[in-house]
Automatic annotation (TrEMBL):
InterPro entries: 2-oxogl_dehyd_N, 2oxoglutarate_DH_E1, DH_E1, KGD_C_sf, ODO-1/KGD_C, THDP-binding, Transketolase-like_Pyr-bd
Domain Transketolase-like pyrimidine-binding: 623-816
Keyword Oxidoreductase assigned: yes
Metal-binding keyword on record: no
Source organism, top-level taxon: Bacteria
CDD domains xref list: TPP_E1_OGDC_like
Name the UniProt record assigns to this protein: 2-oxoglutarate dehydrogenase E1 component
């Protein structure tokens, strides 16, 4: 409010505060001494809010300062909205920074402290910095910082002031007056106990005050009743019990033990039960390896026997290849303590740690969209991280950056960090990150952070409850950092004392969190020692039985919100699909997408495009690629298939071919024709994404896995931008079905084409995708006409097959008239995996050479053949490179029984593109006596040259070479 009132409400120059920061940033003395800089600006903010309510409540220099600013509201310059000189304000900040003692208010009363300012400095210091002195390390290795800001002497408060009362209305300690001594004790309990809180960086004052009240009014603790304490001990017991059972039963096998971090299960148990109580119906969880097996068995209800079978290699999944046990996902319905049933889903996760984060968020988003009312609070994402991974993996930041954007927000994620203080095998914590805590990056996104000692499971349960409440109220991300330790190595085959001898001496002496808490309950006379021993024995018996640990309801019911893949399972591959649309329907839709409100002023270029599209649908001119794409979307929406397309420039299209979102040139209004087809159409969503590939593609993959009936598209700005998301492609898109039985109909649009734009904007790396192709796992297609993209997009939904579709979309062909299509191609045909020779003047018997190609190079070949008037060469386009239609390939070759030479032509270098993949298919289809040859660029370490002249020279050469007889034979038959 202070900065809003002073710098915005009073309409001071918007760059003013930045100016102050720049001045202070350039002065090391100010940075080191200014308590008012940075996140502590909230102190000034609160003073100003008090001043607005009651000016007399603020004393001394600050009162005078605020009076001056308030009086300036009548300034003529200010009223006229002009810039004014702010040197007085800047000087005030600087003087406070340089001369702290000058601005410390002196006590004027012996018996009572009437001026809160000096004490509020101290209180605010605890709020801001108390976490540095919190009891957070269960191993007690870390030396606490001795912060002068937490010393009353730093504020000219002496021992004589300790017993003096002061007005405590600026706190939530439930007393109107406190002595300084009482206040310090309460502040230490609240901010320096087992919980270290970072929240003063939050820009939302309501959120900040909410946390402050919750913490200070309870002294950062909760009085759990007997049953609640017994439940906490039970969670610790089952967590430790499973790990010890596995350790002794399956010696040496990797499981990424949770020992040392058992309080994570306490947190998850509380999260599930608190969420259900608050009305959450579904939780989607993403986590890597550590503690995963424990979560599966003890929270989600996976049968121990099923887990043991996986250890023994007996478990057969409904997928081709399967995966290791600590990568597998699971779903169940669990009855919580409140009596509510909640659906839990654990996402499948590869070894790339945090890459599951955006996948979970995408899955959550589509589940929320199925519920139109209060959807954010019905489906909750929980992401579980390792400490080093949270700090070190870029996808964490990318996913956090999605969290409040319109197309990707899920209303806040609960982040839980299992912080074993060691990361992987790093021997020095300074090598794992550049910030004090692993959670440093979360502060950039206004997320509150609860650091909590894992040896205080009650504190863990308390902050989990608090975090859930916060998330449900403010729909914002929040972080719980459970600081614990790792009893064993990174995996059970490691010897961690090789690199961390001191730490593991402390760990060897640690009795375990369960033992510590059990002893506490015995001391409190809540349990007897025999009770504790029986807890351990009973759980061991449950594991020996192997049937169940909790009573889940394994999902079998068809909820209206459940993800139903049954219609798409075990469907044999086929290219057959009736994707044609009757002309009358197509015309109706075409008119809808070319109709704009009368008052909506289009840019002249867009107005021409809309006018041309109307002429296209009326049959006056051929339909271009953008129109083919739009008609595909419109017809699918009309058929009831929702469409979601995202990417960094998806509304307009990188090459300005789409214009799905129209912009009024008179104001900032937008109009989306595809959202205005009819009252009954399906939903169309187009999102200009943040500048991210990895997180956004991961999000869309997760979205597609939970939305088989939605055409989900991610479009790269340039095809080679997919390089930044290679982990998603390798670990999920290409292999998810083989590893986990997870199907996806995600469509990727990757602009591809050699037009002389250099090595970074030519190739979408066709060869990389083809290398990943096997078992009909995905489709790799390079369409060359408007009708082909129309049918291809429709086929992706009309067929019951759900496979990832990788489309190498054109650039120069978007406006190439040769690539346009007539209306009958949309109304009478379907998608053609292979397009044979289209020139009727080419006689089959006269053909001596067959040229196979894919993509833009076809038109270069066609123009050359026409220019040279060659009638003995047939040119065939392979539109669907994988799965290649062998039957059609054989048919095309058999047509030309007199052909001797078969040439594959491509724009890409020889070691790239489709050549290495496709030559074996062509060879197998060849007739006896035929020779296979290659025409294209020579092998290169770079995708393309950077010089236009060299590009043109290469292009001219490879086209001419394709028609010559001077080509090296690759294989003969």
């Amino acid at each position: 409010m202070f900065y809003k009132n002073i710098f915005l409400h009073q309409e001071l120059h918007r760059g003013m505060f930045e100016k102050v920061k720049q001045i202070m940033s350039s002065n090391k003395d100010l940075l080191s001494n200014s308590y008012l800089f940075g996140t502590n600006a909230s102190y000034i903010e609160e003073l100003y809010e008090n001043y607005i309510k009651n000016p007399s409540s603020v004393k001394g220099e600050w009162r005078n300062f605020f009076d001056k600013i308030q009086n300036s509201s009548n300034n003529e310059e200010l009223t006229n909205n002009k810039d004014i000189i702010h040197s007085s304000i800047i000087d005030h900040f600087i003087q406070i920074s340089k001369n702290r003692k000058k601005y410390i208010f002196k006590n004027t009363h012996e018996s009572e402290i009437n001026d809160n300012s000096e004490i509020f400095n101290l209180i605010n210091a605890y709020r801001l910095l108390g976490h540095h002195n919190a009891n957070l390390d269960p191993l007690k290795i870390k030396i606490k910082d001795n912060l002068p800001e937490l010393d009353p002497l730093n504020y000219n408060l002496t021992k004589d002031d300790l017993n003096k009362p002061f007005n405590s209305k600026n706190t939530y300690f439930q007393k109107s007056k406190l002595s300084l001594k009482e206040a310090i004790e309460l502040l230490k309990k609240t901010y320096c106990s087992s919980i270290g809180l970072e929240y003063m960086h939050i820009s939302n004052a309501s959120a900040r005050n909410w946390i402050q009240e919750k913490m200070e009014s309870t002294l950062a603790s909760k009085e759990f009743n007997k049953n609640e304490k017994i439940n906490i001990l039970n969670q610790l017991t089952i967590s430790e019990g499973l790990e010890k059972f596995l350790h002794t039963t399956y010696v040496g096998q990797k499981r990424f033990s949770l020992e040392g971090g058992e309080s994570f299960i306490v947190s998850m148990d509380e999260a599930v039960n608190s969420a259900a109580k608050l009305g959450v119906e579904e939780i989607v969880i993403g986590m890597a390896h550590r503690g995963r097996l424990n979560l599966l068995v003890n929270i989600m209800g996976k049968r121990p026997r099923d887990l043991f079978d996986e250890f023994e290699g007996k478990y057969a999944q409904n997928c081709t290849d399967g995966d290791v046990k600590y990568h597998n996902g699971f779903s169940s319905d669990v009855t919580t303590r409140s009596g509510n049933t909640i659906h839990l889903s654990l996402a499948f996760n590869p070894s790339h740690l945090e890459i599951v984060n955006p996948v979970v968020e995408g899955s959550v988003r589509v589940r929320q969209e199925k519920r139109e009312k209060e959807s954010f609070n019905k489906v909750l994402p929980i992401l579980v991280h390792g400490d080093s991974a949270f700090a070190g993996q870029g996808v964490v930041m990318e996913t956090l950056n999605l969290s409040q954007t319109r197309g990707y927000t899920t209303g806040g994620t609960l982040h839980i960090i299992i912080n074993n203080q060691i990361g992987f095998t790093t021997s020095n914590i300074k090598d794992t990150r550049s910030t004090e805590y692993c959670t440093g990056i979360a502060k950039s996104f206004d997320a509150p952070i609860f650091h909590v000692n894992g040896d205080d499971p009650e504190a863990v349960a308390f902050v989990t409850q608090l975090a859930l409440e916060y998330r449900m109220i403010f729909n914002h991300d929040i972080v719980i950092d459970i600081i614990c330790f790792r009893k064993l190595g990174h995996n059970e085959q490691d010897t961690p004392s090789l690199t961390q001898p001191i730490m593991y001496k402390h760990i060897a002496q640690h009795p375990g969190t369960r033992k510590l808490y059990a002893d506490k309950l015995v001391a409190e006379k809540i349990l007897e020692n025999n009770d504790v021993d029986n807890f351990v024995k009973n759980y061991r018996d449950i594991l020996n039985d192997g049937s169940k640990t909790i009573v889940p309801i394994i999902s079998s019911t068809d909820s209206q919100y459940s993800v139903n893949w049954s219609s798409y399972l075990n469907i044999a591959w086929t290219n057959d699909a009736n994707t044609a649309v009757p002309y009358e329907k197509l015309k109706q839709l075409g008119h809808k997408i070319t109709t704009v409100p009368e008052s909506f002023k289009l840019h002249t270029l867009v107005a021409k495009l809309i006018k041309d599209r109307r002429r296209m649908i009326d049959g006056e001119i051929n339909l271009d690629y953008g129109m083919g794409e739009h008609l595909a979307f419109a017809s699918l929406l009309d058929d009831g298939y929702p469409v979601r397309i995202t990417g960094q420039d998806s509304g307009r299209g990188t090459f300005t071919h789409r214009h799905a979102v129209l912009h009024n040139q008179d104001n900032s209004d937008t109009y989306i024709p595809l959202q205005n087809l009819s009252e009954y159409q399906a939903k169309f969503k187009v999102v200009d994404s943040v500048l991210s590939e990895e997180a956004v593609l991961g999000f869309e993959y997760g979205y597609s896995c939970s939305a088989p009936n939605i055409l989900t598209i991610w479009e790269a700005q340039f095809g080679d931008f997919a390089n930044g998301a290679q982990v998603v492609i390798d670990q999920f898109i290409s292999s998810g079905e083989a590893k986990w039985g997870r199907q996806s109909g995600l469509t990727m649009m990757l602009p591809h084409g050699y037009e002389g734009q250099g090595p970074e904007h030519s190739s979408a790396r066709i060869e990389r995708f083809l290398q990943l192709c096997a078992d009909n796992n995905m489709q790799v297609v390079q369409p060359t006409t408007a009708a082909q993209i129309f049918h291809l997009l429709r086929r992706q939904m009309v067929r019951l097959i759900r496979k990832p579709l990788v489309i190498f979309t054109p650039k120069s062909l978007l406006r190439n008239k040769d690539a346009s299509s007539i209306l009958s191609d949309f109304t009478d045909k379907n998608f053609q995996p292979i397009i044979g020779e289209i020139d009727n003047s080419i006689q089959n018997s006269s053909v001596k050479k067959i040229i196979f190609c894919s993509g833009k190079v076809y038109y270069d070949l066609l123009h050359y053949r026409t220019e040279k008037n060659l009638k003995n060469v047939a040119i065939i386009r392979i539109e669907q490179i994988y799965p290649i239609t062998v039957k059609d390939l054989n048919l095309e070759i058999n047509k030309y029984f007199n052909a001797v030479d078969i040439v594959w032509v491509q724009d890409e270098p020889k070691n790239q593109g489709a050549w290495s993949f496709i030559n074996k298919y062509i060879y197998d289809a060849m007739l006896n006596g035929q020779k296979l040859r290659y025409s294209g660029r020579i092998a290169s370490s770079s995708p393309a040259v950077g010089y236009m002249s060299k590009h043109q020279e290469q292009q001219k050469s490879l086209i001419a070479k394709a028609f010559s007889n001077d080509i090296e034979i690759f294989l003969s038959k």
